[in-house]
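User: Could you write out the 3D structure of this protein bound to 2-OXO-4-methylpentanoic acid? I've included everything you need below.
Assistant: Certainly. Input first, then the structure.
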Amino acid sequence: MKYDIKVTKTNHSRISEVDFENLAFGRVFSDHMFIADYKDGAWFDFRIVPFENIPMHPATSALHYGQSIFEGLKAYRTDSGDIQVFRPTKNSERMNLSAIRMAMPELPADLFMQALDSLVVLDQDWVPTTPGSSLYIRPFMFATDDYVGIKASDTYRFVMFTCPVQSYYSAPVKVLISDKFVRAFPGGTGEAKAAGNYAATLQPVMAARKNGYDQILWTDGFEFKYLQEIGTMNFFLQIDGQIITPKLNGTILNGITRDSILQLLEDRGTPAQVRDVSVDELYDAYQRGALQDAFGAGTAATISHISEIGFKGERLALTPVDERPLSESLKQELEDIKLSRIPDRHGWVHKVAATVVA
Ligand code: COI
């Protein structure tokens, strides 16, 4: 279905104020944003407007009870100047799964895609050209009822804005294995991209930062034994040549970069093991000198090497990054697909300019 999106362009583009060579992640916002509202069981009033603050009633229920979900995806400029987005339909599907879990309405996939195409085409000059940079796209939805009682809101707003970005982590990351705090339990909301999942990690991560770590490698909260994810990324490791990633069990975000890596490994004839991975297995492999690689995978972070893992007061220093051919080659292959430098065997690339301008 074709949606009628009303476009109001800004009279004051801020693009000339931006230093595209030095982009701090998530601090620079493009000129426009897409908005849609939901009431009486339907989405309405589709519009692209200048990027600006959103006025709110103090009782806006998302602020009180956390019905708030988001997504993250990226648009890239290819060598020939085209603009393309990596696997956007996966984000639309995942946002709707998050919506269902959080008792929020689904957003039609074709509306998501039209909003994305229209917004990125309008702000196409904001898609950076420097190597390693991209336009990060942030769709999100939140409850808008002005009501203090606890119930699922009747009204919602969906917004999509964009930010030109460079890498999320500027260096390999140090992670601390959690043996005290928990991010998610089976039956909880860990698999949803819900705002509260991130809030729950902030205080433990602040404490970990004081000890020189960047993030926490979360474990199950029953025995603090099985590895889950890193909060900003899914977790992969390589032991004795075998790549392993924890299997999804409702507590782990179903990452699109994770899924892409699994597919690439299958294509290479070296499929990953997707199964429970225990802290003991990791520690034992480290002690035997068999832990060859560990990395995180996510949209914002792409593939980020892990340089150190903290565990029960010990700091496990991992293999130097330049001695990790597998994660380096996966990172390169993913980037080459995103930039159409090699064939897109799985139809992952969505050409934005061609789709809308044609
Ligand atoms: C993403 O990878 O897009 C996320 O949503 C996580 C956050 C680190 C920005």
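Residues 27 and 163 are 7 Å apart (CA to CA).
User: Perfect, thank you.
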